[in-house]
Amino acid sequence: MRPAAGARGGSRRATAGVLATVLAGVLTGSGWLLSVSPAVAVPAPVQPAPATRTTTPTTPRPTAPSSGPDAMRAAEYWLHEYGFDEAQKISRGSGVTVAVIDTGIATDHPDLAGAVAGGTDVSGAGAANGAEPIGFEPEHGTMVATLLAGRGHAPSPSTASASASAKATPGASGRTAGILGVAPEARLLTVSAWVGDGNPGGRDIMDQIPAAVRWSVDHGAKVINMSLTSTSTSWPRSWDDAFAYAEQKDVLVVAAAGNRGGGITQVGAPATMPGVLAVGGLDRAGKASWDASAQGISIGVSAPSEDLVGGLPGGTYRTWAGTSAATPLVSGLAALIRSRWPELSAGEVANRIVSTAHDEGAAGRDPIYGFGAVDAARALTADVQPAAANPLGSVTDWIRVHRRAGDPQTTAPSAVPSRRTAQAVPVPAAPAPDRPESDGGVVPGLIVVGFGAALALVAGAAAVHLTTLRRRR
C-alpha cells in the first residue's frame, strides 16, 4: 500500500535530515534506513589480464605528519603506492573539468592557485561563485579539492635548500611543497551546498543535490565528485532526472560509500544509484578500512581512506580519514583517463578504472572492495577492451524499469538501527585496524533530529487515536 501524501513528505524530510558529508566519525547513533528497489542487472567489466599492484603498501604509520607544507608532500603515500605518480607521467588531467559538489572551495589556498575555473552556490547561503566555505564542516570542500587537483606550491626560501636535496615528485615543476593532487592540471568547479540541517538559505539539501548536478553538467564538467552520503539506500524521485541528465550528457559521477565509524554500515545514496562509481575505503595496509569505509553491493572500487592530508581554508593542512578523502582520488583518476582518451565515454572510463583494479577480498566484485583496490598506473597503461555498457549500470534504465506514474518519491522509512544492517553482508575477516584520526563531522544531532521527528509523529498519531476513542465513548 502506498503511503499518503503526508507520509511521502515525511519520508523525504527524514531522508534529507540524514544526508551528510562523509567525514571520519560523523553521523553517530541510529540511522534511518529506507528500502530500495532491486537494481537492474549490469554487465561485468571487460577485464584485461589479472591485476597486480604497482607497489605494495607499507605497514601502517602514524597519522600525523611532520608540520609544514613540505611535509605534506612526503605524507602523500598514495601517489606512489597506488601508481598515481606513474600515471601522472602519462596524463595530469589537462583539459578536463571536475565539479566538486561539497561545502565550497577556498580558492585562496596556495595549493589551489589557478585550479578553480568557476562555481556556484545552490544553498542560498553561500557566495554566488561557490568559493565561500559554508556549513557545519566548511573546510571539507577545500580538503577534497586539494586531494583531487592540488598543484602544490614552491617551497619557502627557508626550506628551499632542504627541498632541493629531497626527491621531488615527478612532474611537480618546482612546486615541491604542499599537496599535489592526483590530477594537478584538471580544472575544478566549486558547487557549494549546505549539507545537513539549519540551512540559513532555507533550501532543502534534497533540492540542492539535483540543482548542483544539473549546473555542473551545463557548465562543462566531465566528472562530478560527490563526497556525500546518506543513511538511506534509496533516493527521492526528484533526483532521477538530474542524474539521468548527467548520464545522457556523458558525465561520470563519483560518490563516497560512507564510513562505519560515522554510523553508516551500508552504502547510502547517491552511491547506490546505477551508473554512479561508488568508492570504498582502504586502510594504510591496503585492506578494507573498518572505520573509514562502509559496505554494499554498489561499491565499484576502493581507494585509500586513512592517513590522508588535506588543505584547509587559510592555507594550512590537516590529517583526515574517510571515504570523502578516497572519492577525490578516484575522481582525479577519472580526469587523468578522460584527458588521455577524450573519446572514451563515461561508462568506458568507469570500466577502465574497475577492470584494472587490484582484486581484493572475494574473487571478482564483492560488497567490501567492489572490483578491488584502485591501480592508477595500470588504469593509464593497460590494454582494456571497449565496454559494451557501463559496468555500474544505467540510472536511465533503472528509472524506466522501477518508476511508475504516481509512485511515491521514496519508500517509507523504518527506524531500524544501522548496526543491524551489517548482518546482511559479511565483514572482512582481518583484525580491525586502529581507529584513524577523526576530522570531525556534521553534528550527530542530525540523526537525533530525524529520529526525534519520527517519534514525535508517532506520538502525535497515538494522541489523535486516543482522542477519537474517547469521543466514541
Automatic annotation (TrEMBL):
Q: Peptidase S8/S53 domain: from which residue to which, for each copy?
A: 93-372
InterPro entries in alphabetical order: Peptidase_S8/S53_dom (IPR000209), Peptidase_S8/S53_dom_sf (IPR036852), Peptidase_S8_Asp-AS (IPR023827), Peptidase_S8_Ser-AS (IPR023828), Peptidase_S8_subtilisin-like (IPR050131), Peptidase_S8_subtilisin-rel (IPR015500)
- Region called Disordered, residue ranges: 46-69, 151-171, 406-439
PROSITE patterns found in the cross-reference section: SUBTILASE, SUBTILASE_ASP, SUBTILASE_SER
Q: Which Pfam families match?
A: Peptidase_S8
Hydrolase listed as a keyword: yes
* Key words, A-Z: Hydrolase, Membrane, Protease, Serine protease, Transmembrane, Transmembrane helix
Q: Where is the active site?
A: D102 (charge relay system), H140 (charge relay system), S324 (charge relay system)
What segments bear the compositional bias annotation Low complexity? 46-58, 154-171
Query: Looking at the keywords, is Transit peptide present?
Result: no
The portions of this protein that span the membrane are 442-466
**Family to which this protein belongs:** Belongs to the peptidase S8 family.
* Protein name from the UniProt record: Peptidase S8/S53 domain-containing protein
Q: State the organism named in the record.
A: Tersicoccus solisilvae
